[in-house]
Amino acid sequence: MIGNIPDGWRVKKLSECGKIITGKTPSKTVKEYWNSNDISFIKPDDFTKNSIIEFDKGKDFVSYKGFEKNPTIPPYSVLTTCIGNIGKVLINKNEATSNQQINSIVPNQDIDYKFLAYSILNIKPIMLQRANAPVVPMINKTDFGKYTIPIPPLPQQEKIVKVLDISSQLIEKQKELIEEYDLFLKSKFIEMFGDPIKNPMEWEVVKLGLIIEILTDYHANGSYEILRKHVELLDKKDYALMIRTTDLEKNNFEDNVKYISESAYEFLTKTKVYGQEIIMNKIGSAGSIYLMPTLNIPVSLGMNQFLIRLNKSCNSVFLYNMLQTDYGKKNIEKQVRGAVTKSITKDAVRDILMPLPPIELQNKFASIVEKIEIIKNQETQKLEHLETLHNSLMDKAFKGEI
After folding, report:
1. Taking the CB of residue 37, how many other CB atoms lie within 10 A of it?
2. What CATH number has the domain bearing residue 90?
3. CB-based burial label for 59 (10 Å; 0-12, 13-18, 19+)
4. CA-based nearest residue to 320, from 270, 375, 365, 360
5. pTM
6. 209 and 316 share one domain
7. Is residue 199 part of a domain?
8. DSSP 138
9. 86 vs 52, 72, 131, CA distance in Å?
10. pLDDT per residue as tens digits for the range 228-280
11. Which one in 112, 113, 292, 312 has a CA-CA gap of 20 to 30 Å to 207?
């Protein structure tokens, strides 16, 4: 809903802001449509950020013949994802075309294309709320055109764009800085241990089974009926966090999490999780690994996970980073089974091979990681502050307060 707007502003439907184009996919059976990289074919996976993307070219193309069969998207149109991950925004710098999951707007002359892009980002929460499918959210062309945005005179649109561009650029630079710390750690790992595929330092290669103990989720520890009497998952905070894959993926251990009571936590003696321990999915996204952060509450292992506990010859931070290399990921993938539902067994995990440098060198690397993580946390807090500032500016911009 749009509240009061300043004098001289208008409220317009997106369909009144320019021509709306819905993409489509040329027939894959016609090779001539795809045998030449002539025109960018934009798909949702080109929308790589939650901010505005200024798009030059991607990884998918159609030939001129394929382009003739598809709607043309002129340069500096505003493209929006409208199926699945709704509300991501991209501006194409060159003539392009897209698939059917994307609606594009060719803006009218009285609307700045960048202002239109920011306007669509601003109404993204409304679009998500009104998307008409519970499983795969979708907004069709007609409904997309009905969304309304406030439109100031063109000079004020340009002023708003300048302000929002500055805050957006600060956010992107901060994200790049954080990514550089990750790249530094990857390069430091190679510097200290060498490429694990080539193993130039000739470290001893061992099976994980020699250095780890594998603990499993509470449903595998005994009779389910007995366990059910002791373990009840609670939505409200009680005593211990029952860690789940979704919590680890989001790195969020406060919102929409599950808890268990103190008596349940004590019952599950073998699946207590401590900071800096490795958790591996055993089904679904089998083989995916996470390094458990240190939390100020007790934590117990969730369903469908392995807890990998190390002996004194291996450091968990080192092992996590080793398993995150291409070498580590490939060795894990070799042990995963199943075409539809993928899984990995304890014995398969024990058979994973890896080089094992001296523990002193592993600990030295872990110390470097710890220092970098402290800096990253500080920079992440700065990023959160910048994002809060940007959201505040967005709110003020579309109320006419800039």
Report:
1. 13
2. 3.90.220.20
3. exposed
4. 365
5. 0.82
6. yes
7. no
8. B
9. 14, 22, 8
10. 566 677 777 878 998 988 899 888 898 889 888 888 888 877 789 999 999 99
11. 292
